[in-house]
């Protein structure tokens, strides 16, 4: 099974790296909101942990999150930006595990909306014109399996983005696979946002297709120290590349988890094309309610992003 997973990953990678939709110039990729982190857990890990998705809240960006769903769950993610940037960013998600012909599967659905405050218009000479609006939204549905060793998942997405009176649409897909090596290691890879995107006013635009692959190690901290309490440390390292990036990002994240009720998280992303990023956050579970928070400072905006996730399992 491991050989098949590695072979499939290499095949998907070779296809993703080929063709006009991969090596595009900077600025030629649109709908970049589809590559932003929305889950507070993922944001706290700086986007690392492809092979270690654990929450239904992550399905909007990592289809492999469906493989970790053990109970039905619905919830919302909310991103609060600094002033003078975009308006708030909200997503909703739903995950339903079921069994079909003895195969454990999960169905997922999601929706997201990003709005902007009124934007100051400028003409070609730089003079002010009238203000205009912009917004974007997307809906998706997916299916993934919940295998003990090997997991796969796929998602289909329809997205729309409007700037002033111009609108573009996209029909996109996500696929992913993960393989667990024994009890303490897992490998995972995803190809996201590949498909078709329409033009903007006759100008060719490209979808934000991205490839991410990584490894996660699970360290049973308490067991190693001889304690009975269930503290586990999850350490992840991932490589991420979007179609308009010359070099990949390197993402690292750590999560200290106590009995799936309390999680402390920290992450770091080395980004060659923009500023590096540090993030941190926590997650708590109260019975059927889950709450996650993360913060990522953004020097360029003199502030940072706040990520909030609230989910209910039933």
What do these coordinates show?
This protein is mainly beta. The protein has 3 helices and 14 strands. The chain has helices at 2-16, 40-44, 221-225, and strands at 73-80, 89-100, 103-115, 134-145, 150-163, 166-181, 185-197, 210-219, 231-242, 249-258, 262-270, 277-286, 289-298, 303-313. Strand 6 and strand 7 (185-197) form a beta hairpin. It is globular.
Q: Which terms summarize this structure?
A:
single chain, 314 residues, mainly beta, 3 helices, 14 strands
Please describe the topology of this protein.
Layout lengths: L1 H15 L23 H5 L28 E8 L8 E12 L2 E13 L18 E12 L4 E14 L2 E16 L3 E13 L12 E10 L1 H5 L5 E12 L6 E10 L3 E9 L6 E10 L2 E10 L4 E11 L1
Distance between the termini: 33 Å
* Strand-pairing-aware structural class: mainly beta
Tell the overall outline. globular
Note the total helix count: 3
The biggest sheet, with number of strands, parallel, antiparallel or mixed sense and barrel status, is:
14 strands, antiparallel, barrel
Estimated radius of gyration = 20 Å
Count of strand segments: 14
Order of helices and strands: HHEEEEEEEEHEEEEEE
Strand line-up in the sheet with most strands: 1-2-3-4-5-6-7-8-9-10-11-12-13-14
- What is the helical fraction, as a range of percent? under 10%
User: Which regions contain 5 or more consecutive residues with pLDDT less than 50?
Assistant: none
Beta content comes to: over 45%
Mean pLDDT: 84
């Amino acid at each position: 099974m491991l050989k098949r997973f590695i072979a499939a990953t290499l095949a998907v990678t070779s296809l993703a790296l080929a063709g006009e939709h991969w090596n595009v110039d900077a600025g030629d990729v649109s709908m970049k909101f589809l590559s932003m982190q929305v889950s507070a857990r993922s944001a706290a890990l700086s986007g690392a942990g492809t092979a270690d998705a654990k929450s239904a809240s992550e399905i909007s960006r990592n289809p492999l999150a469906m493989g970790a769903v053990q109970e039905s769950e619905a919830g919302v993610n909310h991103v609060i930006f600094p002033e003078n940037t975009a308006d708030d960013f909200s997503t909703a998600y739903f995950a339903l595990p079921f069994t079909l012909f003895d195969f454990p599967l999960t169905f997922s659905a999601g929706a997201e909306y990003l709005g902007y405050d009124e934007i100051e218009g400028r003409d070609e000479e730089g003079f002010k014109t009238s203000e205009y609006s912009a917004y974007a939204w997307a809906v998706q549905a997916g299916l993934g399996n919940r295998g003990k060793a090997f997991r796969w998942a796929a998602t289909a997405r329809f997205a729309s983005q409007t700037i002033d009176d111009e609108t573009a649409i996209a029909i996109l897909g996500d696929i992913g696979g993960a393989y667990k090596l024994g009890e303490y290691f897992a490998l995972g890879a995803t190809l996201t946002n590949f498909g078709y995107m329409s033009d903007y006013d006759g100008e060719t635009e490209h979808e934000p297709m991205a490839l991410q692959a990584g490894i996660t190690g699970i360290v049973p901290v308490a067991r190693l120290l001889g304690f009975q309490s269930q503290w586990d440390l999850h350490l992840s390292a991932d490589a991420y590349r979007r179609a308009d990036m010359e070099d990949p990002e390197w993402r690292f994240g750590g999560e200290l988890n106590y009995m799936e009720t309390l999680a402390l998280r920290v992450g770091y992303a080395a980004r060659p094309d923009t500023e590096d990023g540090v993030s941190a956050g926590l997650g708590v579970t109260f019975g059927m309610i889950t709450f996650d928070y993360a913060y990522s400072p953004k020097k360029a905006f003199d502030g940072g992003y706040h990520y909030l996730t609230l989910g209910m399992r039933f």
